[in-house]
Amino acid sequence: MRPLSRKLLAAWLLAASSVALAEVSVVDDTGATVRLAQPAKRIVSLAPHLTETLFAAGAGERIVGSVDFSDYPAAASRIARVGGYSRIDLERVTALQPDLIIAWQSGNAAANLDRLRALGFRIYVSQPNRIDDVATEIERLGVLAGSAPVANRAAESFRQRLAGLQKRYGSRPPVRTFYQIWKQPLMTVGRRQIISDIIHLCGGDNVFGQLETMAPTVTVEAVINANPEAIVASGMGEARPEWLDDWQRWTSITAVARGNLFFVPPDLIQRHTPRLLDGAELLCQHLETARNRRPMK
């Protein structure tokens, strides 16, 4: 082979290997493989918690579109809006020409995601149902955005803190817990909802943890019969919801009799982000308070 031909071959092999190294792929929470020719440079996030997790993964600067209430960190508030997570403006998404869309399985309408796929957009679908899934998601998003070093550090920090909470509270005496996410209709969390996993982390026992529905509707009578030792609510904002005071009339419930009516800010426990551990720590402290209020034997 002539020297010139060898040089051309070497150049071709180098170029081919560079292309191969640029390709990235991960498996999302539906089991689908999401493959990109190179790390995403233009990302649209279709849920507030996904926007926050992208920032944690070091990909904040690559987000070109997000939905309403994407307000953490502060920089997220300056990103162009594409509607709400349940009412996506498909024209705005299309106009942004993202090379990757991050979607929320239980929050985004499947029909909208199907239309976006039909237009040729690559979609990563997220549905973390357990606390440790958050760390895995940070890592996956880091791969897709080309920010793996930052993402891996954030994921490791999350896992270390989670391990600390598990060690501290995991073997504590169980506390029968009712978690209220809405007043009318009265709604709670089922077995597969991540908040149920947090209750378990804290040594609690979700009184409706046998239900398969993510956010089942229950009756006041069912709560009374379950007789929780603690009632926890998060409401819609930073203020303690009046829902908790509504339980005061049901003095037969142990949680009411002992004053175990607790509040956790929704942004810390209803968003599947690294801040979930802040909410978990607060919930664990509340359940520890409930344990300390047990009558002396």
Mean pLDDT: 91
Total of helices = 12
Could you name the CATH topology of the largest domain? Rossmann fold
Query: Rg, please?
Result: 23 Å
**Main sheet overview:** 4 strands, parallel
Which word captures the global form?
elongated
Helix % is 40-55%
The CATH class of the largest domain: Alpha Beta
CATH architectural designation of the largest domain? 3-Layer(aba) Sandwich
Could you state the order of secondary-structure elements as H and E?
HEEEHEEEHEHEHHEHEHEHHEHH
Query: Regions with pLDDT < 50 over 5+ consecutive residues?
Result: 15-20
Total tally of structural domains: 2
Query: What portion of the residues fall into strands of 2 or more residues?
Result: 5-15%
Widest sheet: strand ordering: 4-3-7-8
GO biological process, one term: cellular response to iron ion
Signal peptide: 1-22
Protein name: Periplasmic binding protein
Organism: Candidatus Accumulibacter aalborgensis
